[in-house]
Amino acid sequence: MSRRGWVLFSLMSVIWGIPYLFIKVADGGVSVPVLVFARVTIAAALLLPLALRRREFGGLWRHWRWLLAFALVEMILPWALLANAERQLTTSMSGLLIASVPILTVVLARLTGGAERLTAVRWAGLVTGLAGVAVLADRGALGGDAWSVAQVMLVALGYATGPIIANRKLADLPVLAVNAFCLSFAALVYVPAAALTWPTAMPSAQVLASLAGLGVICTALAFVLFFKLIAEAGPARALVITYVNPAVAVALGVAVLGEPLTPAILVAFVLILAGSVLATRPGGRVPPKVAAPARPGRGRAATAGSAAAAGAGENAPAGDAARG
Fold first, then answer.
1. Is 153 exposed, middle or buried (0-12, 13-18, 19+ CB in 10 A)?
2. pTM for this one?
3. Of 143, 141, 136, which is closest to residue 88 (Cα–Cα)?
4. Which H or E element spans position 163?
5. Of these four, 100, 202, 292, 294, which has the most CB atoms within 10 Å of its CB?
6. Distance separating alpha carbons of residues 48 and 183, to the nearest angstrom
């Protein structure tokens, strides 16, 4: 990846290593619908005025089906499933299960006609990253039941599908408008359930701070940066951040919660980071059948994804993620 890609990759690795902790804290004070509603509403309130000021919503309606599909698989369903699962699972287990996203993305991309080849080096990176996750899993009993695990795996499937939709169907749309629209739609979807389960007493300061962190840092800021990362590196390589996210979660546990830093954890860090490097190595392309025509008159923000796609196939272009 480029230097810009690595900077975005590093930022997103940290930002999406935090939500599991925030969700766990917020779960103790509000219902799942209220948690998701607060998250998407805070983020929408930050991004919507900016998109309106830039007048980026023109023409968005032509893609409404794919916008709703993206919101469904990337926000509406995953965030509720994850919050509900973390009522039973530890944050470590949730992070480890989400680490399956890159492999699911690679497989889905190839099954749906993606142009990127799965080279031996990239497979080696994916396997190495999973080995690091396995080492982390050896820290002890992580708790949970089969249904909770299944919910997180459905989250991983949604996270793998969302960037592909964004990459192929929403790449020529303004990033800010796409995120603002999808977050606003998600907020409207959760209004009834949130109203019915609204807390009768004011949540604690820790819960309120966690909700604010989820909305501002892990959603509003994260989505803008993640769209840029996918445009720079493509969906398959961009989602390798999910290998680093569990390591970030462990580091936060050590620094914030005083958890021990064992040799096994250090080995896992090395494996996860090495796997990330190998998995982001360039791969060959399957020759495209038809070249997409250029679309003049869009402006730089709208054409960045399309221009990258013309030169790099599945690994370039985009628009999405996320996470936690």
1. middle
2. 0.76
3. 143
4. helix 146-169
5. 100
6. 9
